[in-house]
Each structure stands twice: as structure tokens, then as C-alpha cells.
Amino acid sequence: VRLADAVPMAFEVTWLPEALVPGILDRNDFRTASLYEVMRRDYGLVPWQAEQTVEADLPDAVTAGALDIPRSAPVLVFTRRTADADGHVIEFVRSAYRGDRYKMRARLSPPDSTDP
């Protein structure tokens, strides 16, 4: 659970291939440690590219409980698959963000444009 001023803002679940990161949970405190830093330092895994999707959804009971919201409250769900430079998947993440606390913004421009 990610907090802002002690308020639950996002509920995140990360799956890692156990064969690539043996003992990762036993040796690290991820309340303070960066997952990507541990993956680089201890396992030589470097996130190279990721594919992420975003969709609106209603939370399941576990997510609603973690975020302290009713099951009828919408959430923004981000799913991300991260690979190393060889294309091997090293992480899958599902993050649910409270719909009442987040908004998305995007800057769009033609492919041949340049930033000023």
C-alpha cells in the first residue's frame, strides 16, 4: 500500500520470477528499499523496457480493504510487464490507484514535432 499523509493512495502487487531473485523477500525491507535497486545490485537484473496499460475498474474486496474505499468506488488499474535488455520478463505489476485521488494528464504531439 502506498500512502500520502497516512492516507492509502494505491495498492500494488508485484510478481517476480522466483528463479531470478531467490531470497529477495528474506533479505530486504521493501518499506524502505527500492525494488529496482535491489534487483540491479543483488541479482544483476536491469529493467530495460516495459509495457503498461491503464483501465478503470471496480476494486475487489482485498483492494477496497487496502485502500479503505467501498467496492463501488472506481480505481485506475495499471498493469505493467517489465523486461530486461534480452526481452526476458523480470517483473509483472498490478497497481490500483484510488479514482478519487488521481487524474491523468498527457501531452500529445505529432511524431515529427520537436519540443520548444
TrEMBL record:
InterPro entries, per database record: Bact_HTH_transcr_reg (IPR050679), Chorismate_lyase_/UTRA_dom_sf (IPR028978), UTRA (IPR011663)
GO annotation, biological process: regulation of DNA-templated transcription
One example GO MF annotation: DNA binding
Domain UbiC transcription regulator-associated: 1-103
SMART domains for this protein: UTRA
Protein name, UniProt field: UbiC transcription regulator-associated domain-containing protein
Origin species: Inquilinus limosus MP06
